[in-house]
Design goal:
The complex is a heterodimer of chains A (111) and B (91). Chain A has 111 residues and is an alpha+beta fold. Chain A has three helices and four strands, in the order βαββαβα. In chain A, strands 2-3-1-4 form a four-stranded antiparallel β-sheet, with helices on one face. In chain A, a hairpin with a 2-residue loop joins strand 2 and strand 3. Chain B has 91 residues and is an all-alpha fold. The termini of chain B are far apart. Classes of the chains: A alpha+beta (111), B mainly alpha (91). Chains A and B meet through strand 2 and strand 4 of A and helix 4 of B.
Chain lengths: 111, 91
């Protein structure tokens, strides 16, 4: 079992309910393929630095999960087909830094 | 005329070599230390956008380490995390 960080970008037009359903959909897929979710972060609506498929903003959802190669490949297989998503990224890490939230601080300063 | 000129160049070249010692350590030239290898240095991470932007040009290119004086090990990690942030359109 190894540790992964997984981030997905959903389209801007999605409502809060749709984002929730996306979250539950992928967390179910992870748990089915003997994975384990440690934390789900919501980074919220952020400006994209460059346009992706003519979208200027995106909803970011960040998963921290424990699993094996099968978990990740199954997750990415489902995300490739999904038309609600713009991008996804999986990064293998040795250790989670659970104290730092780079995107929460930004939101507070803006408010 | 041409031959004389060539000889002069050779002589000057040899003179310069004797003046410069390749193994001399210059006392007045100092090298900056790597800002990412110090104590309490920030951790390089693709989520830390503020840090990554310090080491990029305005056009979004990665700055060479000879300008920023980042160590080779950290420069490798930096470039990897900048490329990751580019995929997620953070940088």
């Amino acid at each position: 079992m190894s540790l992964y960080e997984h981030t997905i970008i959903a389209k801007q037009s999605h409502s809060a309910d749709q984002l929730e359903s996306l979250k539950t959909k992928y967390s179910k897929i992870i748990e089915k393929n003997d994975g384990e979710i440690i934390k789900i972060d919501d980074w919220g609506l952020l400006n994209l630095s460059h346009e992706i498929n003519k979208n200027k903003k995106g909803n970011y959802i960040h998963f921290k999960l424990k699993g094996n190669g099968l978990t990740v490949s199954e997750l990415e297989k489902n995300e490739k087909i999904d038309k609600n998503l713009l991008r996804f990224l999986t990064v293998k890490v040795k250790k989670f830094d659970l104290d730092k939230d780079y995107f929460k601080q930004e939101n507070n300063s803006n408010e | 005329m041409k031959k004389k000129f060539k000889r002069n160049v050779k002589k000057n070249y040899q003179r310069n070599l004797t003046k410069l010692n390749l193994f001399q350590v210059s006392k007045f030239q100092f090298k900056k230390k790597c800002p990412l290898s110090e104590k309490n240095a920030p951790k390089i991470d693709y989520k830390n956008v503020k840090l990554l932007k310090k080491y990029m040009s305005e056009n979004g290119k990665i700055l060479p380490s000879r300008i920023t004086s980042v160590s080779q090990n950290k420069q490798r990690k930096l470039s990897l995390s900048i490329k990751r942030a580019r995929i997620l359109a953070l940088v």
